[in-house]
Amino acid sequence: MTAPALTVEGLVAEYTTGRRGWGAQTLQAVSGVDLVIPQGTTLGLVGETGCGKSTLGRCLVRLIDPAEGRVKLFDTDITSARRRDLAAVRRRVQFVFQDPYASLNPKLTVHAALAEPLRIHGLHRGREGARVKELLELVGLDPRHGHRHPHQFSGGQRQRIGIARALAVEPEVLILDEPVSALDVSVQAGVINLLADLQEELRLTYLFIAHDLAVVRQISDQVAVMYLGRIVEQGPADTIFTQPRHPYTQALLSAVPVPDPRIQRARRRIVLDGDLPSPLSPPSGCRFRTRCWKAQDVCAHTAPELSEQGGSLVTACHFPAPPAQPTAQNQHKEVTAP
Amino acid sequence: MMKTVGPGPRAEETPEPLLSVRNLCVTYRTDSGSVPALDQLSFDLHAGETLSIVGESGSGKSAASLAMMGLLPPNAVVEGSVRFRGRELLDLSDKKLREVRGKRIAMVFQDALAALNPMMTVGAQLAEAVSVHDSSASRAALRERAVELLDLVGIPSPRSRSDQYPHELSGGMRQRVMIASGIANEPDILIADEPTTALDVTVQAQILDVLMRIQDRTKSAILLITHDLGVVAGLADRVLVLYCGRKMEEAPVEPLFYEPAHPYTRGLLAALPRIDRGTRRLAQIAGQPPSPGERPGGCPFQTRCPHADERCDVIPRPVRVGENHTAACVHAHEIERVTP
């Protein structure tokens, strides 16, 4: 077994809405999440808008301080790290954001943007220029374009710059928050392949946060599915995508269109009724029960724990689909939540 | 033998098209010169069918729909012809165009929050959409029609929802209101420009279901503009692929996916990660799409195309490769056509 690069235990993250004293409410965006990512592998974290996946990612580098729980980078406890130690931790865990145009300083040349983290962390002193060229080559950009500004690059190239900037300080873990969502298909494939190559070459560990399930299947070893702040199912990517046991995972997968007319038109889709409940007042018991076609009384009373389903798959459901049931891809009965 | 067909690849079809677009060009005049957005686009849309225009950022797919609706900003120069039931739309005065727009041809936009009026209840907006084209309806009748429309697009408790403002609704609900407003006057054509792009997949599934149900009921033709080939595979009857403002390929949906003839279409399909397949190395399309000012003469895809040679320096004409299937590529007949 490879050592876990990132370990998350009982993570809770909260936001306060409104003004203090004036109807202020606490919104729990992440409600007790456990995760382990072995070194050199990718965990894909999926879920829809508002499920808490981005908040979770930000907690890992303490861009948001978690309310409860622990995050460990190898043996270093990030949650209890002091300010000074935190800088060292953040060198080892880097972030890649969705929109590199927003995260790159428009006034800095690419060279300056890539040299800045080196200077801050005192790396490659005296040979920053050479290191910047190396980095640009590493992500498939022309090293002669270092004097250009972000606006002179296309979307795909800018995302490569965002990746180069994250890699500048030689991190062990990358948190990729929707890194290819803003890219067109024809350039997206290149960035996905680049991430796979870099992982192999540098033995990087990825937390890959995305709502595009096809991209997640492409890149992930493990997949965790989040709904309203909780992980509802987690396991090896192939198992999650071919034999999901949680009704939400099944519905989510069945809703993703497949770019093949005959397959897509023959698929039975599970169309969920209604909208995501407000995270300010999540449903009691199982949070998915208000949209679940299997919900019973017990679902309203008792929140299901993640339990072993065999094959390293864990599912938080009182009535998980039986293992013999074929995949959600093609053979599901059409069911509509009541 | 290569057989080329002119701008009207469906000339062999007999029924009069509902909408007939010929040599449509859109150019934006800017301080730094003119920027071409759409170049010589021709196609027909027939009653009751779903035609999908697919393309990436900058392909001109939105410029095409906005030009048809007369909704482009003043710095856009539009040339060519857009005929609706034989009537030229590009020459119509604003007043005349308004009679067509919203009534015979309606549009659903991507961003419902920007398209809906934040100061009006959704019921009032729907009533307005109806009353603009039917001034005889009474207030009570308009109100009833608004509730009926909300019900039609699957909004639960439509009566109470009609008194709410857009910000009180979820993204999916707002998009349903947009569709309700689009179909308010039972248009012949519904143009849906990236109708589900801002939505989560489970909500997208709901909205696409609504669109299909509505079409079953109203028999409207749908012009679906999208970048998502999965959505196209599920909904479209025919597909137009645009790249850099030019039509690359046009085909019925199955030939497009199973026997694509244009190298760009083939590249796109091979580059797609798929939920029903395990990990494999994705095929990349080399390079980056050229920016509008830097497009090469001749075939705009030649800078990234594995088949490019000196013959690509001339703008390729559409080549017929199958029934109702054309590809704008001089190599179209040489490329082995198997499912990518």
Automatic annotation (TrEMBL), chain A:
InterPro entries: AAA+_ATPase, ABC_transp_ATP-bind, ABC_transporter-like_ATP-bd, ABC_transporter-like_CS, Oligopep_ABC_C, P-loop_NTPase
Gene3D superfamilies: P-loop containing nucleotide triphosphate hydrolases
Source species: Streptomyces endocoffeicus
Residue ranges constituting the ABC transporter domain according to the UniProt record: 6-253
UniProt name for this protein: ATP-binding cassette domain-containing protein
Protein's UniProt keywords contain Acetylation: no
A Gene Ontology molecular function term of the record: ATP binding
Pfam families according to UniProt: ABC_tran (PF00005), oligo_HPY (PF08352)
Highest taxon of the lineage: Bacteria
Record has Transport as a keyword: yes
Similarity field: Belongs to the ABC transporter superfamily.
Lineage: Bacteria, Bacillati, Actinomycetota, Actinomycetes, Kitasatosporales
Keyword terms, alphabetized: ATP-binding, Nucleotide-binding, Transport
